[in-house]
């Protein structure tokens, strides 16, 4: 590219504010050089650089830019090539860009070009950039409307060292046999290679922080581990990010690690943390959800809503799936199902699916929920049993059954065993095997003879919609004032996994059996994660009270006669349990909050003559100041009665979330615990 020439006229000296330096600790969390670019300050005087040295003369052959995108391309090229010093000129109108002095803006933007040019810009530059020590000089040519800047950068590696990285990296990747591998296998192989071939060290001022140090020398700090993982993943077509922040393993220490994209979700990976001084393979920080990645905190720019929108995090940590097809005899065992019943592993005339799980494991509960909501599960034609594989009286039997059945025992619950109608084990799997994939497997082994139609899912209530879906309203003719008669038979809700010990099932089964909450009209869904409205909760309290007769009055502007919620709200208002808004409305469609539920239950309990005097201190919770003054005593009472528990903050502390919108499952749990606390 050809650039214009200018003639030097005079120099203004500039300096850079102090930037990131080098940290040193006794644990594997040496300070990452984040490459933060700060604003420059203009010093008075002429002919000196920012560090007090004489300014080098400016050549007449300096590229001149009127287009910022072309300037960005030029500076990126210089930084990728590790140019320690380079210059450019712009018109005065470009001296400031988006509120930044142009040299600061362009250097920062070069490290924000995610995936836009190559695998050597963006995060890779950020992870191998130390700082702009000083700008050296700024020349202003007023007559010709020109400003010239001199950029002097410090990197963790030189141009010669980066050339060695570029030469060695293809050889290493080729030796790993990645061709034909899945993305998961590629990520794991790269992780394992780095952990085995890089040794943690803090030797060297800047060098131990570089990709060169990790790849070529085999010795680096966390920044070298993370930059190498980023580069290797990008070279094989896997999206990754370099994340600087802090580690809390011992104390708050600067640290660097990675995010990596797998199957449309992003996971945390920390090769440094998984590098130990023995020959054991460690995966304590491999493909973790943010919730499970407990000991690190990202810098703020990587924790914004915009960043999370661009990098949707996986809700649960990733576990490898092992699937093995077989044709072996099914061993006969008696196991304890999750509901406490005793079941035989033997298939009796039709296929059988054994779901061996850990009720406290998110992978198990998430997969079970997906299976329950699937079409292939509803179609039936096979027996299904969920087994708590961690229960004290069941774990050894489950382990022995898995061993005899040919299923390799790992740490990756759940296990799924598919048995055909001839009592042969046809497929075993461990890990998060997706529900739709299990459905495809079942199609291969499902009974081929004519099947009896599946039992219909019972309507949880004769009312069209006594507990409506959030944001909807039943027909005008539905008053919802009859106590529903619960049908006998199988669990009606396909979106709530049915096994004892799962908190949602335990809570919802209580309120369902007592006729206080029902599923969504015309479906087999309970919608456990949907929000609950103020009208819905008033209806629940009304049912708890036995649905006494109510004479309609125009108490609230939005509570009309003959609606499903009318009697409930008017009764609760007359009892002093609920209040409306200052504009005269009740807010029938407004989502109810946790503290509002606590107060309404507190007032309901006192009106019914229950003891609501027991309270506890809220000091252990981190957000007690967010509790409204009118809800302070009800919240203390609800916490003491076990109706409100803390939500984890991710650092070992808990919050009340008093103003958080309550889900239908959370409401069911609070109501069920209330009934238990008052002996109902």
Quick gist of this model?
With 680 residues, the protein is an alpha+beta fold.
Features:
680 residues; alpha+beta; five-stranded antiparallel β-sheet; 19 helices; 29% helix; 17% strand
Explain this structure.
The chain is an alpha+beta fold. It has 19 helices and 25 strands. Strands 1, 4, 7, 8 and 9 form a five-stranded antiparallel sheet that branches. The protein has a five-stranded antiparallel sheet with strand order 15-14-13-12-16. It has a five-stranded mixed sheet with strand order 17-23-22-20-21, sandwiched between helices. A hairpin with a 2-residue loop joins strand 13 (253-262) and strand 14 (265-269). Helix 6 (211-217) crosses helix 7. The longest helix is centred in the N-terminal third of the chain and has 17 residues, at 159-175. The relative contact order is 0.06. Residues 1-59 and 447-489 have low confidence and may be disordered.
Low-confidence residue ranges: 1-59, 447-489
| Overall SS class | alpha+beta
Q: What's the end-to-end separation, in Å?
A: 82 Å
Radius of gyration: 32 Å
> How many DSSP helices?
19
| Helical content band | 25-40%
Q: Mean pLDDT, nearest integer?
A: 77
Q: Give the beta-strand count.
A: 25
What fraction of the residues are assigned to beta strands by DSSP? 15-25%
Q: What composes the largest sheet?
A: 5 strands, antiparallel
- Outline type: globular
Task: Please outline the helices and strands.
Blueprint: E1 11-12, E2 14-16, E3 40-42, H1 68-80, E4 85-90, E5 96-97, E6 100-101, H2 102-110, H3 123-128, E7 129-134, E8 138-141, E9 146-155, H4 159-175, H5 183-197, E10 199-200, H6 211-217, E11 219-220, H7 222-235, E12 240-247, E13 253-262, E14 265-269, H8 271-274, E15 286-288, E16 296-298, H9 305-310, E17 322-329, E18 334-336, E19 342-344, E20 352-357, H10 362-372, H11 375-379, E21 383-388, H12 395-405, E22 415-419, E23 424-430, H13 435-445, H14 503-513, H15 534-544, H16 566-574, H17 594-607, H18 632-640, E24 647-648, E25 654-655, H19 664-677
Parallel strand pairs: 10-11, 20-21
Antiparallel strand pairs: 1-8, 2-3, 4-9, 5-6, 7-9, 8-9, 12-13, 12-16, 13-14, 14-15, 17-23, 18-19, 20-22, 22-23, 24-25
Helix pairs in contact: 1-2, 4-6, 5-7, 6-7, 10-13, 14-19, 15-16, 17-18, 17-19
